Input
Amino acid sequence: MNFYEEKLKELQTLMKTKQYQEALRLINLELSMPYIPADFEAKLLRIKAKIPSDQIDNEMHNLTPQEVFALINSRELALMEKIGLMQSLQSVNLRSYLDESNEILQSDLPNELKMILCYFLCEQQIDYDFTYQKNKETFVFNPEKFDLNKQEMVPMKVIEKLDSFLNSLSPQLLEMAKQIMINVYAKAFPFTQKFDFTLLAKAIIKVVYQLNGLTDELPYNYSDSEQEIIERYLDWMRELNAI
Output
C-alpha cells in the first residue's frame, strides 16, 4: 500500500467513525501540498463534498471554486452530483475563472453541465470568446453576445404545442412530453438549427405514446412530407440520447 492509499484508508476510517473535523483537517492539509496526483486530489475532493456541513467548521468545509471545477472535471462523481456542484458556481465571479470555465465548455463532459455554466456566464454578461465543444462540433461562445432568449423560445413554443395537443387528453402524458422536451433542450443546447415547433411537438408525442404502449391513433394528423420531418426529429433525439 503506497502513501496515497494509506491516506485514503485513514480518511475512510475517520468518515466511518464520524470524525468529520479531523477528516476535513487531513484533507485540507493534503490539498495544500505543492503536488498531489490528479486522481488522489479528485478522491479527496469527493470525500470533502460528503462531509456534513452542519457538523464541522463551515469556513474550513466550503469547497473553493477551484475545487468545484476540479470535481466537475473528475471521474469521481455521477452526473447529478456534478450538477449539484455546478449550481454552487452561480454566485461565483466567473470572470476570475475564465480558463476553468473554458476547460469545461471544451471538454467531453455531458452537455447538461455545460448548459448550466453557460446560463451563469450569460447572467454575468462576460465578454469573452469561449470554445464550446458539442457532439464533435466546435464553435465560439461569447456570453455577452449570446441570445439566450432565442434559445429558450424553442422549448417554450414546443411546450405550448404539446399543451394544445395533450392537455385535454391526459395531463400525465403532457408532463412526460414536457420532460422529454426539457431533456432535449439540455442535451442539444445551444441550438444552431431552426425548428418546426409543431412537428417537433408531434415527434415528442409519438415517443410518449410508444413509451406508454398506446395503440390509439395519435392526437394529430400529418402528411407524408410532415411524417418524414417527424422521423428526422426522432432520429436526432435518439442521437442525443434524449429519448
Summary: DSSP finds twelve helices and two strands in the chain. The beta strands are 130-134, 137-141.
